Amino acid sequence: MSKLKTKQVIATGLSALMMMFSVTSVFAAEPDSKSNTLNYEVSSRYDWMIHSTIDFGEDAGTNKTIDRTGNGVKVLKNVIPEGKYLNISVKGSGASDAFTVSNGGSEVLNYDVSDDNGAVGVNGNVLSVPAGTNTATQNMGFKLNTTKKSAEVAGQYNGRVIYNAGVGDKNGGTISGGSTSGGTTEGGSSGGTVMTPSELKTLDIEGTKYVVLEERENNQALVMTTSNIGSREFQTTLGPYGEPIARHDGKNNSTYENSTIDNYLENEWYNSLSSKMKVAIQPANIKQVSYTTYNDPNAKQETGPNGQVYNTIRRHVFLPSVSELGKVVDLKNPDKVKAFLNGASIQTRDSYQCDTDHTMILSAYDNNINTNITGSPEDVRPAFVVDLSQVNCSVVK
Questions:
Q1: Strands (DSSP E) along 103-160, which ranges?
Q2: If 0-12 CB within 10 Å is exposed, 13-18 middle and 19+ buried, where does residue 315 land?
Q3: Would the pTM count as exceeding 0.70?
Q4: Strands 108-115, 202-205: pairing kind
Q5: How confident is the model over 349-384, as pLDDT tens digits?
Q6: Over 255-278, what HEC string results?
Q7: Could you say which residues of the chain have pLDDT below 50?
Q8: Phi, psi (5° rounding) for residue 394?
Q9: Phi, psi values for residue 265, rounded to 5°
């Protein structure tokens, strides 16, 4: 082999050897550990509720003080940023947010507000719940001071107590929602948006959806099914031509007590529920009324047609009344009634004053209060009072 060729072979071998060393050095530079990112997010949200309407009664006299205690404000869920607080404050509807009620004229009465810690001023905090604490309760007291004049001034006195919630520093923060009491029961929803009467609060209770008609003390609520359970007659006593026949007990066919629908709901439908639901449902005292004008939610009478006297009866399950439905939908607003009904009429337990055989319904045909003959089938949505602490329950978003 020539020297030239020998040099070429040696050079080629050295080049290959250098490449091997070069590759080896690259692998040697790799790090001994590697990492990646892990993600998890918790969205900020909260739920809360307040007590129902405060009724100070009537005709207490002059220079009196009327106490109403045990009205709860409750935080049901509190998922907020670290270091922040869910703050709930209270104010009135009077001038400069004063705690007052008025007769619609110049007569104004003051009331005092207190919680477990003592007197609460206008826009004062009643709850300040830190992040990481999910629930809280505050008992509220109200004390109405009657007139200091020598005689009371007649009239219907009204006012509102208004609760606001927001997330911020302790006993502070930006207000992001409100809830009021004084004629309408309202509660809180998540994300800082609080329910108003035009917004329905729906609960999922043991897998079935219910509209909350009224929130009550001791974790109880008056609820109604969001869907119909079928179409049924109020009273099925009919003649050969479909005309109503008088009941054997002498009561009007439009009397709810012991009517066909009353007996069905209290017995057959109630007994079809699970044992857990039956235990959670609380017996309630109910009474029907009668309306002199079919489309006026304020034109009601305590007695029915021909002076029919209505008893207070105790039931587990019952048809809702016109006034109970009026707590969650503006009955004088056809658009809101239409949205609430979603194409189906709702039968109520109330009667129509002008006819012994007609009851009141919330009608999908004209999006208003109307009447229906007792023997004509109409959609049924049962209502009842339930103890929410005894069931699996969540707010439907």
A1: 108-115, 118-120, 124-130, 136-145
A2: buried
A3: no
A4: unpaired
A5: 999 999 999 999 999 888 899 999 998 899 999 999
A6: CCCCCHHHHHHHHHHHHCCCHHHH
A7: 4-5, 173-199
A8: -150, 155
A9: -65, -45
